[in-house]
Amino acid sequence: MKFIPIGGIRLATIAAGIRYQEREDLVLMELPKGNSCAAVFTQNAFCAAPVLVAREHLAATSPRYLLINSGNANAGTGEPGLLAARQSCSLLADAAGCDAEQILPFSTGVIGELLPIEPIQAALPSLVSQLDEANWPQAASAIMTTDTQAKLVSRQIEINGQMATVTGMAKGSGMICPNMATMLAYVVTDLAVTPELLQQALELAVAPSFNAITVDGDTSTNDACLLVAAGSSSLPKITNVDDVAFHALCEAVTEVCMVLARAIIKDGEGATKLVTILVDGAVDEVEARQVAYTVAHSPLVKTALFASDPNWGRILAAVGRAGVQDLVVERVGIWLDQVCIVRRGSRAEDYSESRGQAVMDQDEITIRIELGRGDVSSRILTCDLSHDYVTINAEYRT
Amino acid sequence: MKFIPIGGIRLATIAAGIRYQEREDLVLMELPKGNSCAAVFTQNAFCAAPVLVAREHLAATSPRYLLINSGNANAGTGEPGLLAARQSCSLLADAAGCDAEQILPFSTGVIGELLPIEPIQAALPSLVSQLDEANWPQAASAIMTTDTQAKLVSRQIEINGQMATVTGMAKGSGMICPNMATMLAYVVTDLAVTPELLQQALELAVAPSFNAITVDGDTSTNDACLLVAAGSSSLPKITNVDDVAFHALCEAVTEVCMVLARAIIKDGEGATKLVTILVDGAVDEVEARQVAYTVAHSPLVKTALFASDPNWGRILAAVGRAGVQDLVVERVGIWLDQVCIVRRGSRAEDYSESRGQAVMDQDEITIRIELGRGDVSSRILTCDLSHDYVTINAEYRT
To answer: Which residues on A lie below 8 Å from B44 (Cβ)?
Structure first.
């Protein structure tokens, strides 16, 4: 994992023993004074206690610390869960010398179990003492749950002859179908940016990345994605939407989010294939995404992908049930990469099983669906459904 | 399979070799002159060629024969597929001595391959010669694809001291999420009923049965459900919606459909558990079904069910992402059978893992979700997601 640290952003990790034994599960990230912070959170109605507390704290003041645990989501835990999230902030405030409101808590892991506060309390002093700008890889590993790969990436941009950096990490593998956010992602730049522009940059970046991926259609209760502008660069603060530096930043943030989102799908639970679903010719974005997600969530399409079986009838059946009003099937086309499988609503005359098989045998596949209704396109990333997905999720708690 | 034949309804089966070797795959059902026939078909935009032809023929005249093949769905096959469906009707018309429009074709099996007409043509004379009222069990077996159990049931009702019968068969195991219809189901009564009342009886019966089940959320291109009133009973024809005989018939048809729908889910691909999802306290039916289907289709809920893991956080997360506007989580309750797992939006105080486990260990489970918003309820049937589901669907074509 090649990454570039960000001045003023220090991290620490520790094995607190919250759930996992013998692995790091608690991360502290220190943000410099005067940073700007933008965030998007899950739209799941049962959002977790730390999401509620983080939203509240963000509205009140600018954050100085992020406290992230894996192994326990502190979701569906009601008042005791909220209390535990608040307590973890108060305890850290004491240890770090700041206000509790300057701390944002994040949790990921099993839903419905109370977050134990003692192991966190015991770990905090040592965690605070170990903060270091170089600890990104350890942090990217410690936030993992069923992930098999840590997800960490940096991009540099040149602004007026000077380099600026965007570095991000994410976790996520199952319960992935973010809705305005993803599992957990933390993206930081050394640039100084006003909060409004930073939020704009984040929302731009999230739409084609974390909001366009699905492993299993299950939107998590704990999704959160933060974008922090540390302001440690000597470049002037970005305050104007027309500033070329803002556009360069947006591009870099989007690229970092795209790389992380792709890494999440590549590491999707049990995934053996990375599948892009591109819907063209839709009337609007809603319809395009509806078709894309229906295909992406079809267990029959997903198992055919796992089997490398060009069973394109399952794709066609999924398009047909996607609820598009007055779909004219004679205008529908479907391609596996460059191989046309369906033309004018039925099997393409020049299609052969061997050509379909050649695409299906690849690790990365694009399924393109032309609806022939308009000029709107949408692209999402997904993966297949394998035996390992069942194994992982039938055994996850045991 | 206990069943009661219906006077005037004769069936025949044969191993035509359409796709499967060494098993029967072609069924002919003869209906008596003067029957009434009601039908519902798939809402999938890519409905199969036989569905198009059956709809057309039904609109033109009263059917005398149903020709049903398994192994090939004749869907996504365009004009050549339509031609093949029409040809099979013409060929049978010649063999049986009727008009092609008096024949309804049905197909189920792999999507996207052209239906071979030669094996059907070769089989027709022998098929016609073997028609017999006793052949229901053979027919129920011959229409199966990935089903492991034939699905055949009868109910009798007493009308004015005389018995009338409803007998039905169905097939279905995967690609099950019927929308106004199911895979294939044929229900017949010996009563005489007007077509309008028969359609009413069918739609009443389908709503809580075939339209309230899901294995994998994938609506088939070939779903069809027929209700035939043979009129062979000596009881007077049912012509009035207020006739007590009509109510008795509706009840019996609904019961037959419920038994068949339940059999489809019990025989769901790879299914190890039969799961009822009951949503109470919804504002309307749409919302209740939306929550029920979101839970039923969640791969994480389904794999937890397979593992007999009372991982109720996954149920809660699915309810939370079901898109209910302004859901007040503090009013939400969730039960596994009689065990309350979530009360007022978080883990019930009296819940214990061992009580949840005891329910999860059962073969049949009811998940009840109280939304606390209104007084509308909805009930659907589903099953778990197991290794065998992946195996069956990763290997189905090979």
So the answer is: 317, 320-321
Phi, psi (deg, nearest 5) at residue A397: -90, -10
Q: Distance between CA atoms of A267 and A290, rounded to whole angstroms?
A: 24
Q: Is A396 on the interface with B (CB under 8 A)?
A: yes
Output the pLDDT for position A1.
Answer: 58
Average pLDDT, chain B: 91
Q: CA of A77: which chain B residue's CA is closest?
A: B346
Across A85-89, A235-239, A244-248, B378-382, the highest mean pLDDT is recorded for: A85-89
Cα B211 off chain centre by: 8
Same domain, A310 and A246: no
Nearest CA in chain B to A341: B112
Q: List phi, psi (to 5°) of B54.
A: -60, -45
Residue A379 burial (10 A CB sphere; 0-12, 13-18, 19+): middle
In a domain, B4, yes or no: no
A175 touching B (Cβ < 8 Å): yes
Q: Is B79 in contact with A389 (Cβ distance < 8 A)?
A: no
Q: Tokens representing A109?
A: 């892991």
- For residue B398, name the pLDDT band (cuts at 50, 70, 90): very low
CA angle A362, A366, A372 (to 5 degrees): 150
pTM of this prediction exceeds 0.80? yes
Q: Is B182 a catalytic residue?
A: yes
Size of interface A-B (CB pairs under 8 A): 214
pLDDT of B81 above 70: yes
Residue A94's contacts (CB-CB under 8 Å, 6 or more residues apart) are: none
On the question of pLDDT at A341 being above 60, the answer is yes
Domain that holds residue A313: 274-395
> pLDDT tens across A7-60, in order?
999 999 999 999 988 899 999 999 999 899 998 888 888 889 999 999 999 999
DSSP A238: B
What pLDDT does A239 receive?
93
Contact yes or no for B180/B197 (Cβ under 8 A): no
Chain B residues close to A390, C-beta within 8 Å: 303, 306, 385-387, 389-390
Distance CA B317, CA B295 (A): 9
The answer to whether residue A2 is domain-embedded is: no
What's the pLDDT at A21? 84
Residues of B in contact with A386 (CB under 8 A): 390
B28, B144 in Cβ contact below 8 A?
Answer: no
Please name the amino acid found at residue B92. Answer: L
What tokens does A261 get? 């989102």
Residues B241 and B306 in one domain: no
Domain check: are A261 and A282 in the same one?
A: no
Domain count, chain A: 2
* Domain match, A94 and A234 both: yes
| pLDDT score for A25 | 96
